Amino acid sequence: MSDYEMLMIMLTVLALLFTACGFLLALLSFLDKRNNKRKK
């Protein structure tokens, strides 16, 4: 494997991690909003 391929794989993994984290945060905030509405 060349350096270019290694770099692209690392960038892809990082992008996937960021996407997963963003999705989880959005899901958590969505659940929080739903729970807050129920309590009030």
TrEMBL record:
Q: Which UniProt keywords apply?
A: Membrane, Transmembrane, Transmembrane helix
Kindly list the residue ranges recorded as spanning the membrane.
6-31
User: Please, which domain of life does this record's source organism belong to?
Assistant: Bacteria
How is this protein named in the record?
Answer: Holin-like toxin
Q: Which organism is it from?
A: Pseudobutyrivibrio xylanivorans
